[in-house]
Amino acid sequence: MKLELGLIKIEDIQFASESKIDGTTLFVDKETVKKIVLEDEVLVSCDVDIAKPGESVRITPVKDVIEPRVKVEGTGGVFPGWMHKVDTVGSGRTNVLKGCAVVTAGKVVGFQEGIIDMSGEGAKYTPFSKLNNLVLIIEPDESKDQHTYEKALRLAGLRVATYLGELARELSAKEVKTFESCTIPEGIEKYPGLPRVAYVLMLQSQGLLHDTYVYGVDIKQSLTTMLMPTEIFDGAIISGNCVSACDKNTTFHHQNNPVVEELFAEHGKTINFVGVIITNENVYLADKERSSNWSAKMCKFLGVDGVIISQEGFGNPDTDLIMNCKKIEAEGIKTVIITDEYAGRDGASQSLADADKAADAVVTGGNANVVIKLPKMDKIIGHIEAVDIIAGGWDGSLQEDGSIEAELQVITGATNEMGFNCYSAR
Amino acid sequence: MVKEMERAGLPTVHMCTVVPISLTVGANRIVPAIAIPHPLGNPVLDHEEEKKLRRGLVEKALKSLETEVDGQTVFED
Predict the structure, then answer these.
(1) B36, A316: Cβ pair inside 8 Å?
(2) B8: domain range?
(3) How many distinct structural domains can be found in chain B?
(4) Would you say residue B29 lies in a domain?
(5) Helix/strand/coil (H, E, C) string of chain B?
(6) What does the domain layout of chain A look like in residue ranges?
(7) pLDDT in tens, A36-54
(8) Which residues of A are annotated as catalytic?
(9) What is the tens place of the pLDDT at every residue in A355-398?
(10) Most A CBs within 10 Å, among B14, B18, B34, B74, to test the A interface
């Protein structure tokens, strides 16, 4: 399966009376965006703002970050199961608005949304400080419960990203990245000497607003299964998560999964990239056992030599991670796990809730408990009072002068477990 | 907490959903629970059935406390 990503460079966002892309500037008609958000009767108010790299701006509480994309050739459409039918995506060409994002903000859970700072200390830890962000601050009808609000907010973000993506439908990209996966017999024939490697992508699925969807399916209701790697670039996986900000995989992370990109980069050179196995992180022990049994069974069935496993979240998902690692290693297949750490503020405590000797090759996104200080920002987009209750913050985190003292976990994407960040540890 | 209570001389049982973590941490008596968001109940069941389930779990835990163990023991059904 072959997919071309046409990169349409966006270096600036401005409000205008008509939405369009002119050169490298994305012009956005605020009123149309508001209308698109408020199509859902659950949502009663929407404010639209812009946050650019280097500005003295703090966005909080951040729910999701989404990259606008549009399918211009090939079957299906971006975000299948939500914005389009469930036709198989991942082939043809998709145009990408590179350098911008839609950020949804609102108090769904309160303590499980994050912070994006566009400048200063905090900006170093989040990849989203480098993007031109269109921020949607969305409030629900107060009589609705959190689940209804989460879904409405999630879909509003996808609708706006799809609307912006459509602006690039007729544009021709100057830079095109090509990704091509092969079938199992093709791979064996073409690359007989190369080690065969698969990727086990663990998706947060604990329920209670900790959910991930694949082609519209709530992944906690699925057994471990497979995707063609290019399907991920077309929005096959979306986030419905309200978990600790630092290590949740936003929809943007899925669309730009760095493990998949890197495996493609090495495909045919140092390895033969066989495919992506997606598995869940459920709350019943039997589910954890069953799903990890399935991961190991599929790795064995594919006859791979090595597997990269990435995690989402922390705590009990550490058990899913270790089960996947242990069971795949028991099949004689080498594994590397990508995780992050909750090792206490001094870094001296045990990093993961679970451990095993088989997990002897570990890449870490860093220690989420490290205390950081964030300077006051001139402008706040969203609700700053949420900082005192956010996971990683405490009563008094928000200081009188507007600065913040809190654990790193408050920052969206800071210790991402796909490695989509610049923070690590040795 | 389980380990500290045992160190103080009190027999202790850890009722938990993720048994592997309890084993890693070092609990000696482990009674598997239902699910992480509701370890000692099950909202899918009706009131009567859930009461039966909850009573069963507590009785199993009490029984485990009376049982001599030689190393880590998981009290399955």
Answers:
(1) yes
(2) 2-33+45-66
(3) 1
(4) yes
(5) CHHHHHHCCCCCEEEECCHHHHHHHCCCEEEECCCCCCCCCCCCCCHHHHHHHHHHHHHHHHHHHHCCCCCCEECCC
(6) 2-410
(7) 999 999 999 999 999 999 9
(8) 242
(9) 999 999 999 999 999 999 999 999 999 988 888 888 888 888 99
(10) B18
